[in-house]
Amino acid sequence: MTILIIEDEPKTGDYLMRGLAESGFAVRLARTGREGLAMAKEGAADLALVVLDVMLPGMDGWQVLAALRADQATEQVPVLFLTARDEVQDRVRGLELGADDYLVKPFAFVELVARIRTLLRRGPAREDDLIRIGDLEIDVLRRRVRRGATTIVLTSQEFALLHLLAQRQGQVLSRSIIASQVWDMNFDSDTNVIEVAVRRLRRKLDDPFPVKLIHTRRGMGYVCDLAPVPVPVPDAP
């Protein structure tokens, strides 16, 4: 299985190709968006993952990603954006268009390899288009949320938070995991951004309904489930 790099900056492209090859991957390199798209379609049967720059000549990364997702042969191939565009709206746009991960330049090569291996472990199938937990229904592709007959309007950040919790239903997610997955940042114990975001999500998702879905495990994190995860009781001495 092959990793396709689509990168127009010569030094970066050569560096990635050499480094990934030395890490044990089969690698191909395209210098333009159109060339990369053609190579992806021609080699779709053996394509494991695409590492894609955004700022490409002629056909940019956004257009390449849209074309990959619109083609049945490549719609399930994982795509990792690797770009100097570090604005939050760029990361959100990439993920909403169907990218599986987004890494900002400059980057640590070991982190890139770790992210690639994580994506490859997920296998070729993409996530379910519909997630259901009790009366909660999440339409992943259309980014729509309902509880019963009620449509719940969420911001992009609130949707990302709910999606993460729902994907891992029943698992307690620490604040550091949530921070890295939703905000792409290292956890800072002095900030309450996660608590504020969870509180806002609960106001929309839980407060109007008798059955609560988002539960707090004090000192551990948050979990999405129909019932709160029981706190373990220590064995008697």
UniProtKB/TrEMBL annotation:
InterPro entries named in the record: CheY-like_superfamily, CusR-like, OmpR/PhoB-type_DNA-bd, Sig_transdc_resp-reg_receiver, WalR-like, WH-like_DNA-bd_sf
A single cellular component GO annotation: cytosol
SMART domains xrefs: REC (SM00448), Trans_reg_C (SM00862)
UniProt entry tagged with the keyword Iron: no
Keywords: DNA-binding, Phosphoprotein, Transcription, Transcription regulation, Two-component regulatory system
Residue stretches making up the Response regulatory domain: 2-120
Matching NCBIfam families: cztR_silR_copR
Any GO BP: regulation of DNA-templated transcription
Pfam families in the cross-refs: Response_reg (PF00072), Trans_reg_C (PF00486)
Name this polypeptide is given: Transcriptional activator protein CzcR
Modified residues (4-aspartylphosphate): D53
CDD domains in the record: REC_OmpR_CusR-like (cd19935), trans_reg_C (cd00383)
A single MF term (Gene Ontology): phosphorelay response regulator activity
